[in-house]
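[Q] Does anyone have a clean structure-token version of this?
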Amino acid sequence: MTGDHCNDLKEIRSMFQQGVQNKRELNIMIDLCKVSNCKKTIPYFAAATMRKSEFSVSPIEKLKNFNKGKKILETYIAKCPNDIEAKYIRWLTQTKAPRFLRYNQNTREDYQFIIENIAKSNVEKNYQKVILDHLQNLENE
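[A] Here you go.
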């Protein structure tokens, strides 16, 4: 997952936006991220890893998966602090994460960063619209 060949990115984005409905779909997304040579799939892999907690029975396993994905995402953002999609994934995760996980400290700054920088980013215009629409819809909930 370290190269810049992003042939799988569009499919991974689509799976992410549609939301995985079961463990099988989630594993397909995880496997697709694992074999991708595109570093831009790392935040999606992190989100999918966190999402594994929803399909785990054991509370310990739930927390382990969530923290593993969180660490992957935070490490990626530390290395790529201007990555709009990574900030979007973190914002979305923190917005939706249960409060007791205490993973909600970057929502305002990520939201502001995305709004201020998305137009000049290298994210395709049609996906920029998807991101902005999603931000707007969740902010209005």
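[Q] Thanks! Anything notable?
[A] The helical segments are 9-18, 23-35, 42-51, 59-79, 84-96, 107-117, 125-139.
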